[in-house]
Amino acid sequence: MSNLEFKKQLHQYVQWRDQLIQAIEMYQEWRSRYKLSDPHSMDTILNIVSGLKSDRITLAFAAECLRGKTKLINSLFFAETGVRLLPSFPSRTICPTELFFDPKGSYIRLLNIESRLEDISLLEFKQNTDRWTQIDLDCTSPTQMEEAFKELVASKEVPKNVADKLGLWNEREAAEQGIVDPETVEIPCWRHSLISFPHPLLQEGLCILDTPSLNTLATEPELTLSILPSAQAIIFVLGADTGVTKSDLEMWKNHVCSSRGNKKQGLAVVINKIDTMWNDLAGEEGYEESIKKQIKTSASILKLSEDVIFAVSAKQALLAKVKSDAALLEKSRLPSLENYLSDDILKQHRQILMETVNKDIGLLVSESSKLTDAKLINVQKQREELKKIDFDNTAMIGKLMAETRDRQNTYKSSVENFQASRKVFSVQAKMLIDSFSKDKIDSIIKDTKQDMSKSLSTYGMKQNISKLFDELRDLLQNSVDTTNETRRLIKAIYKKFQNEYGFKKIEPQLFSIKQYQFELEQIFDEGEAFRNSAKTAMTEQSMVVNKLYSTLIVKARGILKQAHNDAGTWSQSVLTPLMYQIKDHKKQIESRLQILRKISDSKGDVTESITNLEAELDSLKKQRTELAMIIKDMHFSEYVDVKFTP
Fold first, then answer.
1. What angle do CA 632, 52, 14 make, to 5 degrees?
2. What is the 8-class DSSP label of residue 243?
């Protein structure tokens, strides 16, 4: 027995995603075949396809110690292995762990705890496999795997000053536990682990993130500010025997909720260990009432809907799946959580993914549709015009030739205007791109870093982080005016060609700075919440603040780099639809002149010319039908009128 419904839903999601990838690839091939492709649109489409192919559904699990989080993960996903794949020991927490499938092999990679002292992000460490200790897994030997996974909870004794530097010693907390001035301190051997395992769910793109207790989250800003936010859902685990404790609430407010931007989308709570109440003297009715009360109380404290709070027994669910005991599994209440993951999280992710794809190539698809429509309409007009012409009337032929030459002159004028407009736009676009330049960003970061190194207190370092926030805000704000001016210019160029040369009305894709501002403010808010949290305030260690600074820098630099790249790509492709219309206009004029010359010289039958135009119409209709089918497969039907019949 296993979570077949979740597997089924995940498999259907993977099939849908593969079909979407195929449709997007067909769209790229369509653009190339009909000579509508350009390097920038190709890069956009290839990036989307690459992102979809590497897409993962990440489920993160967070909890304080002794909440049964690891048992919950094992019962949800790994019961059929016959062993507890992730180790679970009393009072021991595994290091932050990511489980996924890597086609290159099955392994455990471990990053040593001393890496905390280096000014290198976890993301950068992940890109360098040489920095990790690797244990290869023998998936045919449950015993070997079980022994290998025990390494996740390995610990060692180090001098107190070493633990202090690593952020793993807190004088106040130790004193509360009766520990005063010890010579050595027990610390975990490993900072982070990456596990590749050929489990069917992982092979289909599921990734499990097992996060540590509050103590570790408070000293690893990157977990809260980068890794948790990337998860599609966070499952926060409480204990039925403890309820919402002070440390639970601290973790929930400052690490779980803040990682979602306080929107609470994709957040669920599991009240684990309900089996501790099974033998309650109050009987079945009293037991049910206790469960309802716990859910209601937790919902009130955490300010969360009762619909996403699940009372379960992970221990009994794991046992039920191993023994194929349907009654026990039902009693464990795990299926309700599995249904939530299937029905809510996968559907949410599918919707978000579709919105992202729509945002990235929706305008490309819209442009393709409108340009194809314009070609159809123009060729249709040319055919109908030929049918109505009196070709025995020499004066009329001459008049048409003169009109066409006037159009040719207008075309030449439009080309000159286009080149002039492009030059003006290039200057403005460079100003926009330069406003996000790496040099400007790095200068701000360098100055703040120098100021931080001179600070003698944690308070002073925190003040410098605030200064960094303000200066990066100012940098983006200075880009707003440039962005607005650039938007006005591009709209004016498009309007000029529509009004003066009768070009098809196509809304230009306008560059927007709002998303980058929103994302930057979000990480600033998360950073503020993290550095002002009670746990961080108690720690008061420069190592923690330095890590916070580094994490924020990596995220902020990434956002601004994306703005810089997006501005560059946009500026090089925004005039492409106009260029295509100019080329098509030229083709139409040349075709018309050729037909009129032929008729004027030969005085012959015009049937051949009409036949050629009808053949061209058939080709365009085929092109249009192909696009309509591709759009339908991409779920972009709002961009095309499939009823169009020239």
1. 75
2. B
Q: State pLDDT tens for residues 207-254.
A: 999 887 777 777 787 887 778 888 888 999 999 988 899 889 988 888
What's the CA gap between 455 and 644, in Å, rounded? 69
Contact (CB, 8 A) for 113 and 157: no
Cβ partners under 8 Å of residue 212, min gap 6: 93, 94, 95, 96, 220, 223
Closest by alpha carbon to 251, among 522, 533, 539?
533
Short-list 403, 556, 342, CA closest to 468: 556
CB contact at 8 A, 578 and 512: no
The 10s digit of each residue's pLDDT in 597-619 is: 666 665 555 677 778 888 888 99
What end-to-end distance do the CA atoms of the chain give, in Å? 58
For residue 645, give the 3-state DSSP assignment: coil
**Sheet of strand 267-272: strand arrangement:** 133-136, 107-112, 190-196, 97-100, 206-210, 57-63, 233-239, 267-272, 309-311
Nearest C-alpha neighbor of 337 from the set 84, 74, 78, 72: 72
More confident residue, 263 or 48: 48
Measured distance CA(9)–CA(344) in Å, rounded: 11
Tokens of 580: 């295509």
> Containing H/E element for 311?
strand 309-311
Strand partners, 184: 159
Structure tokens at 384: 């109908």
Measured in residues, the chain has a length of 646
Scan for tokens 């926060």, then name that residue.
236
C-alpha angle 342/348/351, rounded to 5°?
125
* Alpha helices (H) in 150-236, listed in sequence order: 160-165, 171-176, 200-203, 214-217, 221-222
CA-CA distance, 256 to 266, in Å (whole number)?
Answer: 11
Q: Under a CB-based contact definition with an 8 Å cutoff, are residues 105 and 136 in contact? A: yes
